[in-house]
Design goal:
Keywords: Membrane, Transmembrane, Transmembrane helix. It is built from 15 helices and no strands. By secondary structure, the protein is mostly helical. The radius of gyration is 19 Å and the shape is globular.
């Protein structure tokens, strides 16, 4: 029981990176070195994501287009709309950079690993979850910058840079390594799968580098002096409300579309989650010159909340499945 409420170890590492950046921020030549190291690490991260992507899994789940369309509508349509609607209610309690981060969070693709893992725990439609989460991650490279520019238009928040140079950086740093990794899958796919535990540290290490670099710049720019505790509490409330509304929307949509239980589970865990591993690199490019540390802070808080809530719900679904299907549980 206690494991369901435990803190994600990766969150502890993120907190340590933030503390280090707050106490010992990188500046000058050190900041340049960390920035280049973070860019290379992120390219490696997306290369490995591409190498892990199984074409067989994509083919197995690609046929359920109604479910995928429902998931994408939650991820890239319902989420941004809710982010805009939350603004009049909570926007006054957040700093402009934090609210920018909330809107950016709403435009991100779904997670891959955790969405699939929770769908599997809850005994949902795993092949469809693999296909949808992987496609969402890839589509996010294109859709997230466009959606972010649209939702930030007309607000008083920091604007995302959508210049040709920015799109070129996204293609070069994120999409190209992903495609190269997937093309290299016949050569290195087995090696990558066998070393999944080791490569998990590569994933986390790249994110930690970006977080430290981004928060160092934000701290030097006065992040903590301009972010009152009340704004952080409001951000926590926003995250809880946003996650609750989206989860409710997935259930309503699933019933409206007459999906079975397994499909509704996939819709829930693929539609209601946002990707930290994709979000931080994209933010680092889109908001270059802005307080990236403050902008990704909502994503980091939402990430931990979604893990805790989804773990509880996945356990509930798993127990419900065990009661409904006692025979397979003994196999």
């Amino acid at each position: 029981m206690t494991s369901r409420f435990s803190i994600d170890p990766f969150l502890i590492k993120l907190l340590i990176a933030i503390v280090l950046a707050s106490l010992l921020p990188a500046h000058g030549v050190g900041a340049t070195i960390f920035s280049w190291a973070a860019s290379l690490a992120i390219a490696l991260l997306f290369f490995l994501h591409g190498a892990r992507l199984s074409r067989g899994a994509i083919i197995a789940g690609a046929g359920h287009w109604r479910l995928h369309a429902s998931i994408f509508s939650i991820t890239f349509l319902v989420f941004p709309i809710l982010g805009l609607l939350i603004g009049p209610v909570f926007g006054g309690y957040l700093t402009p950079d934090l609210y920018t981060g909330v809107l950016f969070l709403c435009c991100l693709p779904a997670t891959v690993q955790s969405a699939i893992a929770f769908t599997a725990i809850a005994r949902g439609n795993v092949p469809a979850a693999i296909c949808s989460a992987s496609a969402s991650s890839l589509l996010g490279v294109f859709l997230t910058p466009v959606l972010t520019g649209l939702v930030l238009a007309g607000t008083n928040t920091a604007s995302a840079s959508l210049s040709t140079d920015t799109l070129g950086k996204i293609m070069l740093q994120l999409l190209l390594p992903f495609v190269l990794g997937h093309l290299a899958r016949p050569l290195i796919g087995t090696w990558v799968v066998k070393r999944n535990r080791l490569l998990k540290h590569v994933d986390q290490g790249s994110i930690l580098l970006v977080v430290y670099s981004a928060f160092s710049a934000a701290v030097i720019g006065g992040l903590w002096s301009s972010t009152p505790p009340s704004a952080l509490l409001a951000l926590l409330a926003v995250s809880l409300v946003l996650l609750g509304l989206v989860m409710g929307a997935t259930q309503l949509l699933g019933r409206f579309m007459h999906f079975g239980l397994e499909d509704r589970i996939a819709l829930l865990f693929c539609g209601a989650k946002k990707s930290l591993s994709s979000g931080i690199p994209i933010a680092n490019i889109l908001f270059a010159g802005h307080a990236v540390g403050a902008i990704v802070l909502p994503l980091m808080i939402f990430h931990q909340i979604q893990l805790i809530v989804c773990a509880i719900i996945a356990g509930m679904y798993a127990r419900r499945t065990l009661v409904a299907e006692p025979s397979p549980s003994r196999v």
